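Table 4 source record.
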Amino acid sequence: MNMVRLSWKYLVAKPMNTGLNILLLALGLAIITVLILIQDQFENQMSRDAKGVDLVVGAKGSPLQLILSSVYHIDFPTGNIDLKEAKGVSRNRLVKKTIPLSLGDNYGGYRIVGTNHDYLDLYEVSFASGGAWEKPFEVVLGSAVAEKLNLKVGDTFMGSHGIGSSSHEHDHHDYRVTGVLAPSGKVVDKLILTSLESVWFTHGKEGEHDHDKMENAVAKRGFPETEEDRQITTLLIQYRSPMAAVQLPRFINSRSSLQAASPTFEISRLFELLGVGIKLIKGLAFVIIFIAGLGIFIALYNSLKERRYDLAVMRTIGASKGQLFVHIVLEGIILTSLGAIVGILMGHLFLSFLVMGQEQGALSNISAWIFLKAEVWILVYAITVGVFASLIPALGAYKTDIAKQLTK
């Protein structure tokens, strides 16, 4: 006697009840699936992009905003800082390396970041074509930028003022693409990288747009040599020793007009704040799953009352008590297994709609169709719910009195 097939036939015989129980369970599991996918990929992405950056120094303001704008490029900068002050910080004995950044322009919504070649080394990039910039207004494109904007080595474009895509163009000088980065899964995939001098000349005086000046070499490491009063947006710092983590932020925050923020600390604080909301949503999902489990129990219990005669007949033709017990438990397992599969697929489908069109921002690097090991535990959890929901009805089937039921 094939118990799996028999259990399936009984479920199919009541499609409305079966479908409702599967859908209710699937909704709860879909919510958990979405949360697992977002939390895992978001945390991994944050850790990957902040690797090698111990401290960020910028203008006074929100430390979290400073980190989000300078490391992850998903917020507006807190302002600019004086180049001389930035150089002073870089000469501190506790500092191993500094990488200056200048922000403020975009092309097609993708940020143009003025920096030096140390920024390329920080993310250990490789080139799909071309190479790094050598002169002002030469740029390197992240892989996502090149693909989305259909640009290649040798192409030119005009940058626009501001972080957002709806801003006016700079009409002084074109940027020329010298290299395209290979995909890395890091923040550089969605950036347009150039020299600090390019950003300065774009926002500088009219005389700085002299074409002769555009043939000069740019600073590939450290800061450009200049006698003029210049500004940058932020400074990425690597510590020389663990002692710097204690002393340097306090020194900068208390004895200068600058602000120092730790990516590790600020992102941990962000995850802590987000964790409260995630726990509430997970709580709601578990309530839905509990209701679904209760629904499965009621459906099986009511079904047992209607099928006592059928179960008695099964006993008379050779089915054991154990087989009847397994038969009812299998119904619960089949119901919850289908609910888990449907729920996981619904979670991935919902996430794909959520990230659709998110070319930039916190959700832009999240893939909806990555399957994690944790999702196997969703299936295990669902089957466990099915087993527990079917235990009491299964015991009722086990104790079926053949003579009494056939007499009725």
